[in-house]
Design brief:
The protein is about 30% helix and about 25% strand. The chain is of the alpha/beta class.
């Protein structure tokens, strides 16, 4: 089957590698998505194991569409009885920028009408709509005059891992956090440290990666499990195999720190909800006073940008970060994400790599700093 795996801007390269490792074929990178092909086993494994996927769609029809009437007719042509029954529930999501279909919510409404009208014509009754937890979620995407209808295999967005029982203001997206860990190139061969861990998302995603724990291992349901062709035996076998690949031990420390008592408490609760008890350590400490926990280590941090989270003097704060890294953390590799381009300059270190990522609507730079004693040349 054909699959369209959606992600966040900037994470396409690591998602492509994830899909390749699962055996996907005919991989084609797109903007905020990867198109590929695979069998039902790949579909199930992708929903369970992909760390940087937001949603996995399987296209079922492509057609030319210029207005709402054409859309309605094309949707009615599909035999919807092969995908749902009269007692199932339905939801439609639509994204359209076509001139004749400029209103996405209205396009979704016309798509829904076409589906339920087909059932009403055949049976005299129509299936119900459930926007929260439908049996079948249909996705419509229209660009220009080209429309594509897909089935949503995931159900809830895959960034919902289930461990965020509490959060602070402006928590980082779980998919973005996992993508940062993978983009950084951390080889799981040294201590991992998030010195400004907030509610713990980056640390938790790093720990799931370190122990090779599938991010959706404890998810209760997926969209494909409500389909008529759902293979429960195959799914149970895939979950069992994934559990067998989990590492029992990780020889390095996974550490999170924050200056806020409440953040530490929340991060600990979230780590417990992620079944990471005994695998991560989270304590209260200001970065200004934090001592390196090992001779060699890996740092990823998400400091305040002075946007959604405020810092009284953000330039001085970022200068402190740079000074502390240079003076105390030689032998480490540090990655910092921030949308505050002015404040980043105050770090005072030369970044050896720069990437553009988006934390919500904020365009951010994800920067690598290699920390040496003296100069890099020496």
């Amino acid at each position: 089957m054909k699959l369209l795996v959606k992600t966040l801007a900037g994470l396409e390269p690591v998602l492509e590698e994830e899909l390749r490792s699962l055996g996907a074929e005919n991989i084609q990178p797109l903007t905020r998505a990867i198109a590929c092909e695979g069998d039902r086993r790949l579909l199930y494994r992708a929903n369970l194991e992909l760390r940087t996927a937001v949603r996995i769609l399987t296209p079922i029809a492509t057609f030319s569409v210029r207005n709402e009437d054409e859309l309605y007719r094309e949707v009615r042509r599909i035999d919807w009885s092969q995908y749902m029954t009269l007692t199932d529930t339905l939801a439609v999501d639509a994204v359209t920028n076509a001139q004749g279909l400029s209103h996405s919510k209205y396009a979704a409404l016309k798509t829904k009408d076409a589906i339920v009208d087909q059932f009403r014509q055949e049976t005299g009754r129509r299936p119900s709509v459930d926007l929260t937890n439908p049996s079948l979620r249909v996705n419509l995407h229209v660009t220009g005059t080209r429309g594509t209808l897909s089935l949503d295999t995931s159900g809830d967005s895959l960034h919902k891992r289930g461990y965020r029982v509490e959060s602070l203001a402006a928590p980082i997206n779980e998919v973005l956090a996992a993508g940062m860990v993978l983009l950084s190139g951390w080889q799981r061969d040294c201590t991992f440290l998030d010195p400004m861990c907030g509610s713990g998302t980056i640390l938790i995603e790093a720990a799931l990666y370190a122990y090779n724990i599938p991010p959706q291992l404890h998810r209760r349901s997926f969209g494909f499990q409500r389909w008529p062709d759902y293979d429960a035996d195959l799914w149970n076998r895939i979950v069992r195999e994934a559990r067998e690949r989990i590492r029992e031990d990780f020889e390095y420390e996974l550490l999170g720190f924050d200056r806020d008592f409440r953040a530490v408490k929340i991060a600990r609760h979230n780590a417990l909800a992620a079944y990471l008890e005994g695998k991560v350590q989270i304590d209260r400490q200001r970065f200004e006073r934090l001592e390196p926990p090992a001779d060699k280590g890996f740092i990823i941090m998400n400091p305040p940008y002075d946007e959604r989270l405020t810092e009284k003097n953000v330039e001085v704060f970022y200068q402190m970060i740079g000074d502390r890294l240079k003076q105390e953390f030689s032998g480490y590799e540090a990655w910092i994400i921030s949308s505050n381009k002015s404040a980043i300059k105050n770090i005072g270190l030369r970044a050896s790599k720069r990437m553009t990522l988006y934390n919500g609507a904020l365009e951010c730079k994800f920067l690598r700093y290699e920390l040496y004693e003296g100069s890099k040349k020496e």
